[in-house]
Structures are given as structure tokens and as C-alpha cells.
Automatic annotation (TrEMBL):
PANTHER family assigned to the protein according to its UniProt record, in alphabetical order: RAN GUANINE NUCLEOTIDE RELEASE FACTOR (PTHR15837:SF0)
The organism's place on the tree of life at top rank: Eukaryota
Keyword Protein transport: yes
Taxonomic source organism: Eruca vesicaria subsp. sativa
Entry protein name: Ran guanine nucleotide release factor
Keyword field: Protein transport, Transport
Entry keyword Repressor: no
Stored InterPro entries: Mog1 (IPR007681), Mog1/PsbP_a/b/a-sand (IPR016123)
Gene3D superfamilies associated with the record: Mog1/PsbP, alpha/beta/alpha sandwich
Length: 202
């Protein structure tokens, strides 16, 4: 059972906040991160948690929106062997309505083989990817929360230098919160503190 501390973290200059385990470090201290993303990594496990603000995709229905984004992610990252494991129904998120326009969320879990950075297909790692899509309709924004959890690290991958190759050690064996719970925790604690972040639509 994990007893990890999950402090509240400011995102996007504090306009949004969430909470997740302290072991996740802000990647912008190490590398350039696009303005519409907040990226947190645990280098010791090669796990990452990404919050992303996107223009609302009006052509994507609420039902299955997270799995649509998950497929899109697999395409973008040139993933192989994509497999959708599960997707949720549409969940109402009453605490995130704006001007009485309700917000909804869906989640999806998939597996895929992805290479790191500019490495080729021969260095692909097998990952489980968790996606939550919060649809802030009042400000025409799709929020994506994505958690990456390695299942199998390729010996040719850059990741092997940091965490070793082969099957990843399950979180439960290390006494830490598994990624399926990390994303649930970050979702349940997700708050918009300043709607002006979303510009003219707010």
C-alpha cells in the first residue's frame, strides 16, 4: 500500500492546480516544455505525467473522446502494436462548470510500443498509457492528462541506461502509487483557479 505524499502542485502559473506524488519532478527544469503543456517525470522509473491544454475538438463526441485522443497519440508517436484496453463512460464534472456550461470527462487505457526521442523502431519500449480528457466546454478547451508507465524496457532504449532493461518493477513492489492511481488522484484534485487562463472565451 502506498503512503506517498501528494502535495498540491500549481500548473500553468497557478491558474490550474492538481496533486500527485512528490517523486514527479517538473521536466521544465531539465528541458524545454511547450507553453500548452506541464510535464512531470520520475526518472528513476521512467514514468511521466503530462497536462495539456488543447483547442476543443468539436468534431469528437464526448463518448469515447479519451480513446480518440489515445489513438491520436499513438499515431503522433509512430507507435506500433496499439491496443485499447478499456474506456470509461462519460463522467460529469460538476466542480469544473463555467457559466453554467457543464464539463465532462472520459478516460481510456492503452498499450503501445514507442521509441524515445529520436531513437528508431529497434529501440521501442512497451508502455501502458492512461489518458483522461476533461472537456471544459464553457471555455472551448480539451484538457488532456496523460500518464506513461513502462511495462518492458528495450536494452537499446535510452531508458535502459537510467532504469535498466527488461520488465519494469511493479509500483506495488516498490511501495509507491501505481500510475493507474496517480492519474485518478490528479483528476480528482484537478481545479481551475483562474478561468482567465483560457483567454477570450473566458
Amino acid at each position: 500500500m502506498s503512503t506517498e505524499l501528494c502535495p498540491e502542485r500549481p500548473l500553468f502559473g497557478g491558474a490550474i492546480s492538481s496533486s500527485f506524488p512528490q517523486r514527479f519532478q517538473d521536466a521544465s527544469n531539465i528541458r524545454q516544455v511547450p507553453d500548452h503543456q506541464e510535464v512531470f517525470v520520475d526518472p528513476s522509473r521512467d514514468e511521466s505525467l503530462i497536462f495539456e491544454l488543447l483547442d476543443f475538438k468539436s468534431d469528437v463526441g464526448d463518448m469515447g473522446s479519451a480513446s480518440w485522443f489515445l489513438h491520436d497519440l499513438a499515431r503522433e508517436q509512430d507507435a506500433e502494436g496499439f491496443k485499447l484496453i478499456e474506456q470509461s463512460n462519460v463522467i460529469d464534472v460538476p466542480g469544473l462548470s463555467y457559466r453554467n456550461i457543464p464539463s465532462v470527462a472520459t478516460t481510456a487505457i492503452g498499450e503501445m510500443a514507442i521509441s524515445k526521442g529520436r531513437q528508431g523502431r529497434e529501440a521501442q519500449n512497451l508502455l501502458r498509457v492512461y489518458v483522461a480528457n476533461i472537456r471544459l466546454k464553457g471555455v472551448e478547451t480539451d484538457v488532456l492528462v496523460t500518464a506513461y508507465e513502462p511495462i518492458l524496457i528495450n536494452p537499446l532504449s535510452e531508458s535502459a541506461n537510467a532504469v535498466g532493461s527488461g520488465l519494469a518493477v511493479p509500483a506495488s513492489q516498490s511501495g509507491i502509487m501505481p500510475m493507474c492511481d496517480v492519474i485518478k488522484q490528479s483528476l480528482s484534485a484537478f481545479k481551475v483557479n483562474d478561468w482567465s487562463l483560457f483567454g477570450s472565451s473566458a
